[in-house]
Amino acid sequence: MTNQRDNENPDRRGFLKCMAWAGAGTLLMMKGGVLHARVLGLDAGTEAKDATFSFAQISDSHIGFHFAPNPDPASTLRGALAQVDALPVRPDFLLHTGDLTHLSRPDQFDTLAGLMQESRAGKGKAFYVPGEHDVIGDNGAEFFRRFGERQQPGGWYSFDHRGVHFVGLINVLALKAGGLGFLGNEQLAWLKKDLAPLSAETPVLVFAHMPMWALYPAWGWGTDDSVEAMGYLRRFGSVSVLNGHIHQIQQKVEGNITFYTARSTAYPQPAPGVGPAPGPLKTVVPDRLHSYLGIRSVRHVQGKDALAITEGVMA
Amino acid sequence: MNRLACAACLLSTLAAWTPPHAAASSRVPAEKSNQIEIRNFMFTPKTLTVPVGAKVVWINRDEEPHTVVSANGQFAPSKALDSNDSYVATFGKPGTYVYYCTVHPFMTGTIVVK
Protein backbone atom coordinates (compact mmCIF):
# COMPACT_ATOMS: atom_id res chain seq x y z
CA MET A 1 0.00 0.00 0.00
CA THR A 2 1.38 3.36 -0.98
CA ASN A 3 0.12 6.44 0.74
CA GLN A 4 0.51 9.57 -1.30
CA ARG A 5 -1.24 11.95 1.05
CA ASP A 6 0.64 15.17 0.61
CA ASN A 7 1.23 15.83 4.29
CA GLU A 8 3.04 12.51 4.65
CA ASN A 9 5.21 12.54 1.59
CA PRO A 10 7.48 15.58 1.36
CA ASP A 11 8.01 15.29 -2.39
CA ARG A 12 4.33 14.96 -3.08
CA ARG A 13 3.57 17.82 -0.72
CA GLY A 14 6.10 20.06 -2.44
CA PHE A 15 4.75 19.08 -5.81
CA LEU A 16 1.13 19.78 -4.90
CA LYS A 17 2.01 23.05 -3.21
CA CYS A 18 3.80 24.14 -6.32
CA MET A 19 0.86 23.07 -8.43
CA ALA A 20 -1.68 24.89 -6.25
CA TRP A 21 0.29 28.09 -5.94
CA ALA A 22 1.80 28.31 -9.35
CA GLY A 23 -1.43 27.26 -11.01
CA ALA A 24 0.27 24.72 -13.26
CA GLY A 25 -1.89 22.03 -14.80
CA THR A 26 -0.74 18.48 -14.28
CA LEU A 27 -1.56 15.24 -15.99
CA LEU A 28 -1.96 12.35 -13.58
CA MET A 29 -1.90 8.90 -15.12
CA MET A 30 -2.64 5.69 -13.43
CA LYS A 31 -0.83 2.61 -14.72
CA GLY A 32 -1.35 -0.65 -12.91
CA GLY A 33 -2.39 1.21 -9.78
CA VAL A 34 0.64 3.49 -9.70
CA LEU A 35 0.23 7.20 -10.20
CA HIS A 36 2.43 9.13 -12.64
CA ALA A 37 2.39 12.91 -12.82
CA ARG A 38 3.43 15.05 -15.79
CA VAL A 39 3.29 18.79 -16.15
CA LEU A 40 0.77 19.77 -18.79
CA GLY A 41 2.10 21.26 -22.00
CA LEU A 42 5.24 19.10 -22.12
CA ASP A 43 4.69 15.52 -23.18
CA ALA A 44 1.16 15.29 -21.87
CA GLY A 45 -0.47 16.61 -25.02
CA THR A 46 0.50 13.67 -27.21
CA GLU A 47 -1.04 11.21 -24.79
CA ALA A 48 -4.23 13.25 -24.72
CA LYS A 49 -4.62 12.57 -28.44
CA ASP A 50 -4.81 8.83 -27.76
CA ALA A 51 -7.84 9.25 -25.55
CA THR A 52 -10.92 7.27 -26.52
CA PHE A 53 -13.04 9.57 -24.42
CA SER A 54 -12.80 12.04 -21.60
CA PHE A 55 -15.01 13.53 -18.94
CA ALA A 56 -14.67 16.42 -16.50
CA GLN A 57 -15.22 16.55 -12.77
CA ILE A 58 -16.29 19.58 -10.79
CA SER A 59 -17.10 19.58 -7.10
CA ASP A 60 -18.18 21.53 -4.05
CA SER A 61 -19.69 24.57 -5.72
CA HIS A 62 -21.41 25.58 -2.42
CA ILE A 63 -23.92 27.95 -4.02
CA GLY A 64 -25.20 30.16 -1.19
CA PHE A 65 -21.88 30.47 0.64
CA HIS A 66 -21.28 34.18 1.17
CA PHE A 67 -18.16 34.64 3.27
CA ALA A 68 -14.40 35.04 2.91
CA PRO A 69 -12.53 33.97 0.91
CA ASN A 70 -15.25 33.76 -1.76
CA PRO A 71 -18.50 35.68 -1.28
CA ASP A 72 -19.53 34.84 -4.86
CA PRO A 73 -19.23 31.09 -5.52
CA ALA A 74 -21.69 31.42 -8.43
CA SER A 75 -19.12 33.36 -10.43
CA THR A 76 -16.33 30.91 -9.67
CA LEU A 77 -18.58 28.00 -10.71
CA ARG A 78 -19.31 29.89 -13.91
CA GLY A 79 -15.54 30.21 -14.39
CA ALA A 80 -15.01 26.49 -13.77
CA LEU A 81 -17.68 25.57 -16.31
CA ALA A 82 -16.13 27.95 -18.85
CA GLN A 83 -12.85 26.17 -18.26
CA VAL A 84 -14.52 22.82 -18.98
CA ASP A 85 -16.07 24.28 -22.13
CA ALA A 86 -12.62 25.47 -23.23
CA LEU A 87 -10.95 22.04 -22.89
CA PRO A 88 -9.22 21.09 -26.15
CA VAL A 89 -11.00 17.74 -26.19
CA ARG A 90 -14.73 18.00 -25.58
CA PRO A 91 -15.60 15.84 -22.57
CA ASP A 92 -18.35 13.23 -23.05
CA PHE A 93 -20.01 14.26 -19.81
CA LEU A 94 -19.65 16.20 -16.60
CA LEU A 95 -19.48 14.79 -13.11
CA HIS A 96 -20.40 16.88 -10.07
CA THR A 97 -19.28 15.18 -6.87
CA GLY A 98 -21.56 17.01 -4.47
CA ASP A 99 -22.14 20.05 -2.31
CA LEU A 100 -23.84 21.78 -5.20
CA THR A 101 -25.37 24.09 -2.59
CA HIS A 102 -24.34 25.35 0.81
CA LEU A 103 -27.68 24.93 2.63
CA SER A 104 -29.88 22.69 0.40
CA ARG A 105 -32.22 25.63 -0.28
CA PRO A 106 -34.41 25.50 -3.40
CA ASP A 107 -33.15 28.91 -4.57
CA GLN A 108 -29.57 27.64 -4.29
CA PHE A 109 -30.44 24.57 -6.38
CA ASP A 110 -32.11 26.95 -8.87
CA THR A 111 -28.92 29.02 -9.15
CA LEU A 112 -26.82 25.90 -9.68
CA ALA A 113 -29.18 24.57 -12.34
CA GLY A 114 -29.21 27.95 -14.09
CA LEU A 115 -25.41 28.13 -14.17
CA MET A 116 -25.22 24.62 -15.60
CA GLN A 117 -27.61 25.66 -18.37
CA GLU A 118 -25.30 28.57 -19.27
CA SER A 119 -22.47 26.17 -20.08
CA ARG A 120 -22.14 23.77 -22.99
CA ALA A 121 -20.79 21.04 -20.70
CA GLY A 122 -23.40 21.74 -18.04
CA LYS A 123 -26.23 21.59 -20.57
CA GLY A 124 -24.97 18.27 -21.84
CA LYS A 125 -25.07 15.06 -19.88
CA ALA A 126 -24.13 15.64 -16.26
CA PHE A 127 -24.05 13.14 -13.42
CA TYR A 128 -24.41 14.22 -9.81
CA VAL A 129 -24.03 12.76 -6.35
CA PRO A 130 -25.12 14.77 -3.31
CA GLY A 131 -22.86 16.19 -0.64
CA GLU A 132 -23.97 16.54 2.97
CA HIS A 133 -24.77 20.21 2.23
CA ASP A 134 -27.35 19.09 -0.36
CA VAL A 135 -29.43 16.87 1.92
CA ILE A 136 -29.99 19.06 4.99
CA GLY A 137 -33.47 18.77 6.46
CA ASP A 138 -35.06 16.62 3.73
CA ASN A 139 -32.69 13.65 3.32
CA GLY A 140 -31.94 14.84 -0.18
CA ALA A 141 -35.52 14.84 -1.53
CA GLU A 142 -35.02 18.12 -3.39
CA PHE A 143 -31.60 17.08 -4.67
CA PHE A 144 -32.81 13.73 -5.99
CA ARG A 145 -35.92 15.29 -7.53
CA ARG A 146 -33.76 17.65 -9.59
CA PHE A 147 -30.47 15.83 -10.12
CA GLY A 148 -31.09 12.16 -9.31
CA GLU A 149 -30.61 9.34 -11.81
CA ARG A 150 -33.62 7.45 -10.41
CA GLN A 151 -32.10 4.00 -10.80
CA GLN A 152 -32.36 2.87 -7.20
CA PRO A 153 -34.62 4.13 -4.39
CA GLY A 154 -31.51 5.08 -2.37
CA GLY A 155 -30.20 7.32 -5.19
CA TRP A 156 -27.03 5.35 -6.06
CA TYR A 157 -26.50 4.26 -9.65
CA SER A 158 -24.13 2.83 -12.21
CA PHE A 159 -23.62 3.05 -15.95
CA ASP A 160 -21.21 1.84 -18.61
CA HIS A 161 -19.46 4.25 -20.89
CA ARG A 162 -17.12 3.05 -23.64
CA GLY A 163 -15.96 0.04 -21.69
CA VAL A 164 -15.57 1.76 -18.33
CA HIS A 165 -18.01 0.93 -15.53
CA PHE A 166 -19.04 4.01 -13.54
CA VAL A 167 -20.60 3.79 -10.08
CA GLY A 168 -22.13 6.77 -8.25
CA LEU A 169 -22.39 6.14 -4.52
CA ILE A 170 -24.23 8.11 -1.82
CA ASN A 171 -22.28 8.42 1.42
CA VAL A 172 -23.91 11.48 2.99
CA LEU A 173 -27.22 10.06 4.23
CA ALA A 174 -28.25 8.29 7.46
CA LEU A 175 -25.07 9.58 9.09
CA LYS A 176 -24.71 8.41 12.67
CA ALA A 177 -23.81 10.60 15.63
CA GLY A 178 -20.05 10.44 16.05
CA GLY A 179 -19.61 8.80 12.65
CA LEU A 180 -18.19 9.62 9.23
CA GLY A 181 -19.67 9.19 5.76
CA PHE A 182 -21.88 6.13 5.45
CA LEU A 183 -22.95 3.79 2.66
CA GLY A 184 -25.17 1.35 4.56
CA ASN A 185 -25.92 -2.34 4.04
CA GLU A 186 -28.53 -1.84 1.34
CA GLN A 187 -26.16 0.15 -0.86
CA LEU A 188 -23.26 -2.23 -0.20
CA ALA A 189 -25.44 -5.23 -1.17
CA TRP A 190 -26.41 -3.42 -4.37
CA LEU A 191 -22.77 -2.58 -5.14
CA LYS A 192 -21.70 -6.20 -4.70
CA LYS A 193 -24.44 -7.32 -7.08
CA ASP A 194 -23.73 -4.51 -9.56
CA LEU A 195 -20.05 -5.44 -9.84
CA ALA A 196 -20.55 -9.21 -9.84
CA PRO A 197 -21.02 -9.74 -13.62
CA LEU A 198 -18.00 -7.60 -14.59
CA SER A 199 -14.70 -9.14 -15.65
CA ALA A 200 -11.64 -8.16 -13.63
CA GLU A 201 -10.28 -6.36 -16.70
CA THR A 202 -13.14 -3.83 -16.72
CA PRO A 203 -11.85 -0.42 -15.64
CA VAL A 204 -14.08 0.77 -12.79
CA LEU A 205 -14.57 4.36 -11.74
CA VAL A 206 -16.37 5.02 -8.47
CA PHE A 207 -17.47 8.49 -7.43
CA ALA A 208 -18.98 9.76 -4.20
CA HIS A 209 -18.90 12.99 -2.24
CA MET A 210 -16.98 12.09 0.90
CA PRO A 211 -13.55 10.44 0.76
CA MET A 212 -13.84 6.66 0.49
CA TRP A 213 -10.78 6.14 2.67
CA ALA A 214 -9.84 7.30 6.17
CA LEU A 215 -8.26 10.54 4.97
CA TYR A 216 -8.64 12.46 8.23
CA PRO A 217 -11.39 11.03 10.45
CA ALA A 218 -10.96 13.66 13.17
CA TRP A 219 -12.46 16.15 10.71
CA GLY A 220 -14.97 13.67 9.36
CA TRP A 221 -12.94 13.05 6.20
CA GLY A 222 -13.72 9.42 5.55
CA THR A 223 -16.53 6.89 5.15
CA ASP A 224 -17.31 4.45 7.98
CA ASP A 225 -18.00 1.42 5.80
CA SER A 226 -15.83 2.19 2.76
CA VAL A 227 -13.59 -0.80 3.54
CA GLU A 228 -16.44 -3.18 2.60
CA ALA A 229 -16.96 -1.35 -0.68
CA MET A 230 -13.23 -1.51 -1.45
CA GLY A 231 -13.35 -5.23 -0.70
CA TYR A 232 -15.70 -5.69 -3.67
CA LEU A 233 -13.44 -3.58 -5.91
CA ARG A 234 -10.10 -5.18 -5.08
CA ARG A 235 -10.31 -7.88 -7.75
CA PHE A 236 -10.39 -5.33 -10.58
CA GLY A 237 -7.20 -4.41 -12.40
CA SER A 238 -7.92 -0.68 -12.47
CA VAL A 239 -10.14 1.17 -10.03
CA SER A 240 -10.29 4.95 -9.70
CA VAL A 241 -12.24 6.56 -6.88
CA LEU A 242 -13.13 10.24 -7.24
CA ASN A 243 -14.58 12.38 -4.49
CA GLY A 244 -14.91 15.96 -3.33
CA HIS A 245 -15.69 17.23 0.17
CA ILE A 246 -12.24 18.33 1.31
CA HIS A 247 -11.70 21.09 -1.30
CA GLN A 248 -8.12 20.14 -2.12
CA ILE A 249 -6.22 17.50 -4.01
CA GLN A 250 -5.14 14.43 -2.11
CA GLN A 251 -4.26 11.03 -3.53
CA LYS A 252 -3.74 7.58 -2.24
CA VAL A 253 -2.86 4.34 -3.97
CA GLU A 254 -3.93 1.05 -2.47
CA GLY A 255 -3.12 -1.91 -4.69
CA ASN A 256 -4.98 -1.31 -7.94
CA ILE A 257 -7.29 1.26 -6.34
CA THR A 258 -6.36 4.92 -6.63
CA PHE A 259 -8.25 7.55 -4.67
CA TYR A 260 -8.44 11.15 -5.81
CA THR A 261 -10.05 14.06 -3.99
CA ALA A 262 -10.97 17.16 -6.00
CA ARG A 263 -10.64 20.87 -5.58
CA SER A 264 -13.74 22.94 -4.95
CA THR A 265 -15.06 25.54 -7.36
CA ALA A 266 -15.89 27.74 -4.34
CA TYR A 267 -13.19 27.86 -1.64
CA PRO A 268 -10.24 25.86 -0.33
CA GLN A 269 -10.07 24.12 3.04
CA PRO A 270 -6.97 23.66 5.17
CA ALA A 271 -4.70 20.63 4.75
CA PRO A 272 -5.67 17.78 7.09
CA GLY A 273 -5.04 18.72 10.72
CA VAL A 274 -3.71 22.19 9.94
CA GLY A 275 -5.57 24.58 12.24
CA PRO A 276 -8.37 23.91 14.73
CA ALA A 277 -11.05 22.73 12.31
CA PRO A 278 -12.00 22.24 8.68
CA GLY A 279 -13.97 24.98 6.92
CA PRO A 280 -13.20 27.78 4.50
CA LEU A 281 -9.58 28.85 4.37
CA LYS A 282 -10.20 32.52 5.13
CA THR A 283 -6.61 33.66 4.84
CA VAL A 284 -6.48 33.29 1.06
CA VAL A 285 -5.62 36.59 -0.57
CA PRO A 286 -8.47 37.45 -2.98
CA ASP A 287 -6.30 37.57 -6.10
CA ARG A 288 -4.86 34.14 -5.24
CA LEU A 289 -8.25 32.47 -4.72
CA HIS A 290 -8.45 31.09 -8.25
CA SER A 291 -5.24 29.16 -7.84
CA TYR A 292 -6.96 27.06 -5.15
CA LEU A 293 -10.04 26.31 -7.23
CA GLY A 294 -10.31 24.05 -10.19
CA ILE A 295 -11.72 21.37 -12.36
CA ARG A 296 -10.50 17.91 -13.25
CA SER A 297 -10.62 16.19 -16.59
CA VAL A 298 -10.25 12.46 -16.99
CA ARG A 299 -9.31 10.70 -20.20
CA HIS A 300 -9.60 7.05 -20.95
CA VAL A 301 -6.97 5.56 -23.20
CA GLN A 302 -8.13 2.33 -24.77
CA GLY A 303 -5.84 -0.63 -24.32
CA LYS A 304 -3.72 1.20 -21.76
CA ASP A 305 -5.40 0.00 -18.58
CA ALA A 306 -5.22 3.52 -17.28
CA LEU A 307 -7.22 6.67 -16.81
CA ALA A 308 -5.32 9.90 -17.31
CA ILE A 309 -6.35 12.52 -14.80
CA THR A 310 -5.63 16.19 -15.38
CA GLU A 311 -6.01 18.87 -12.74
CA GLY A 312 -6.80 22.36 -13.97
CA VAL A 313 -6.65 25.38 -11.70
CA MET A 314 -8.71 28.47 -12.34
CA ALA A 315 -5.79 30.88 -12.12
CA MET B 1 -63.43 47.87 12.42
CA ASN B 2 -64.18 44.84 14.51
CA ARG B 3 -60.82 43.40 13.59
CA LEU B 4 -59.09 46.60 14.64
CA ALA B 5 -60.97 46.65 17.88
CA CYS B 6 -60.04 43.06 18.42
CA ALA B 7 -56.38 43.81 17.69
CA ALA B 8 -56.50 46.73 20.09
CA CYS B 9 -58.10 44.46 22.65
CA LEU B 10 -55.35 41.89 22.10
CA LEU B 11 -52.70 44.56 22.41
CA SER B 12 -54.14 45.81 25.65
CA THR B 13 -54.36 42.23 26.89
CA LEU B 14 -50.72 41.78 26.02
CA ALA B 15 -49.94 45.06 27.72
CA ALA B 16 -51.82 43.86 30.77
CA TRP B 17 -49.64 40.78 30.78
CA THR B 18 -46.47 42.80 30.77
CA PRO B 19 -45.68 42.45 34.48
CA PRO B 20 -45.48 38.62 34.44
CA HIS B 21 -43.52 38.80 31.18
CA ALA B 22 -41.11 41.22 32.75
CA ALA B 23 -40.77 38.83 35.64
CA ALA B 24 -39.98 36.07 33.18
CA SER B 25 -37.41 38.16 31.36
CA SER B 26 -35.67 38.88 34.63
CA ARG B 27 -34.76 35.20 34.59
CA VAL B 28 -33.06 35.64 31.22
CA PRO B 29 -29.53 35.90 32.66
CA ALA B 30 -29.99 32.45 34.20
CA GLU B 31 -31.25 31.11 30.84
CA LYS B 32 -28.36 32.73 29.02
CA SER B 33 -26.00 30.34 30.70
CA ASN B 34 -27.86 27.56 28.86
CA GLN B 35 -26.22 28.67 25.66
CA ILE B 36 -24.14 26.36 23.54
CA GLU B 37 -21.76 27.90 21.09
CA ILE B 38 -20.92 26.15 17.86
CA ARG B 39 -17.43 27.17 16.90
CA ASN B 40 -14.64 25.40 15.03
CA PHE B 41 -16.90 22.39 14.44
CA MET B 42 -17.46 21.86 18.17
CA PHE B 43 -20.36 22.25 20.56
CA THR B 44 -19.14 24.22 23.58
CA PRO B 45 -19.75 23.18 26.27
CA LYS B 46 -19.84 19.62 24.96
CA THR B 47 -21.94 18.52 27.92
CA LEU B 48 -24.45 20.90 29.49
CA THR B 49 -26.45 20.11 32.63
CA VAL B 50 -29.74 21.99 33.03
CA PRO B 51 -32.80 21.81 35.30
CA VAL B 52 -36.10 20.35 34.07
CA GLY B 53 -37.99 22.87 31.92
CA ALA B 54 -34.83 24.68 30.84
CA LYS B 55 -34.51 26.34 27.48
CA VAL B 56 -31.24 25.62 25.68
CA VAL B 57 -29.98 27.94 22.94
CA TRP B 58 -27.44 26.91 20.31
CA ILE B 59 -25.75 29.61 18.28
CA ASN B 60 -23.62 28.91 15.21
CA ARG B 61 -20.43 30.99 15.17
CA ASP B 62 -18.88 29.09 12.24
CA GLU B 63 -19.10 30.00 8.59
CA GLU B 64 -20.15 26.46 7.89
CA PRO B 65 -23.78 25.47 8.42
CA HIS B 66 -24.52 23.11 11.28
CA THR B 67 -27.58 21.35 12.62
CA VAL B 68 -28.68 20.25 16.09
CA VAL B 69 -30.34 16.84 15.86
CA SER B 70 -31.14 14.39 18.65
CA ALA B 71 -29.29 11.11 18.11
CA ASN B 72 -32.49 9.14 18.78
CA GLY B 73 -35.23 11.60 18.00
CA GLN B 74 -35.82 12.79 21.58
CA PHE B 75 -36.34 16.41 20.58
CA ALA B 76 -37.24 18.36 17.43
CA PRO B 77 -34.34 18.81 14.97
CA SER B 78 -33.10 22.24 13.96
CA LYS B 79 -33.02 23.42 10.38
CA ALA B 80 -29.64 24.23 8.81
CA LEU B 81 -28.13 26.98 10.95
CA ASP B 82 -26.20 29.47 8.86
CA SER B 83 -23.64 31.76 10.50
CA ASN B 84 -25.04 33.39 13.64
CA ASP B 85 -28.35 31.55 13.36
CA SER B 86 -29.62 30.10 16.62
CA TYR B 87 -31.90 27.27 17.67
CA VAL B 88 -33.86 26.83 20.91
CA ALA B 89 -35.13 23.62 22.47
CA THR B 90 -36.92 23.22 25.79
CA PHE B 91 -36.24 20.16 27.90
CA GLY B 92 -39.31 19.18 29.92
CA LYS B 93 -38.21 15.77 31.14
CA PRO B 94 -35.16 14.60 33.05
CA GLY B 95 -32.74 12.50 31.06
CA THR B 96 -29.61 12.44 28.93
CA TYR B 97 -30.02 13.84 25.44
CA VAL B 98 -27.24 13.07 22.96
CA TYR B 99 -27.30 15.21 19.84
CA TYR B 100 -25.12 15.79 16.80
CA CYS B 101 -24.71 17.86 13.67
CA THR B 102 -26.08 15.87 10.73
CA VAL B 103 -23.87 17.84 8.33
CA HIS B 104 -20.74 16.95 10.32
CA PRO B 105 -21.72 13.90 12.38
CA PHE B 106 -18.38 13.79 14.17
CA MET B 107 -19.69 16.82 16.10
CA THR B 108 -21.62 15.51 19.11
CA GLY B 109 -22.88 17.00 22.36
CA THR B 110 -24.96 16.02 25.38
CA ILE B 111 -27.66 17.77 27.40
CA VAL B 112 -28.21 16.33 30.87
CA VAL B 113 -31.57 17.36 32.32
CA LYS B 114 -31.92 16.94 36.09
From TrEMBL, chain B:
Domain called EfeO-type cupredoxin-like: residue spans: 15-113
Signal peptide residues on this chain, from the entry's feature table: 1-22
Entry-linked Pfam families: Cupredoxin_1
Broad class of where this protein is predominantly found: periplasm
Subcellular location: Periplasm
Keyword ATP-binding tagged: no
UniProt keyword terms in alphabetical order: Electron transport, Periplasm, Signal, Transport
PANTHER family reported in the protein's UniProt record: BLL1555 PROTEIN
Name recorded for this polypeptide: Cupredoxin family copper-binding protein
